[in-house]
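Quick note —
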Amino acid sequence: MRRHSTDPAAIEAEIAHLRSLAIGALRRHWRVIFGRTPPADLSKDLLGRMIAWRLQERAFGALDRESLRFLNHFARQGSSPRRQFKPGTVLVRDYQGERHTVTVVREGFEWQGRTYRSLSAIARAITGTVWNGPRFFALRPAARRNKKNVSEESNGSLPGPGVNNEALVPAANNVFCVN
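Predicted structure written out below.
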């Protein structure tokens, strides 16, 4: 194996070299870098990615405490911690042919000139039924269902005329987040 370097170009070249190696060579690299035999069921791609991560960590430093805490929480919970949006973020949801625009404000969420503490309250006001707000605005995945049911529920709404489609970031079939 080559000497350690902190030159980004050298690290990039070493990672590119890893992609060309056979799985046996990657396993030897793993033993040198991690000091133990790699797990038998790791694919060539995953071996290469983990070795590349370790090379970058040695060259540029490890994750900070906040990032480690976030990842540990994510690993324990099995899902992402609650997402925090910056004030000014705009969520756009088409529902039954009508466009609903929600702006994140410091106090919560603004919709139709009124501030709400939660997206669920806005989803309830829009639909007239109880909804999980983050799910309604496609910020959280829906419960798993078969594809037939999911496609039947989608109304296929798209941004209407006069909307700058390039400024919209699709978050789901009929939901857009404008940053």
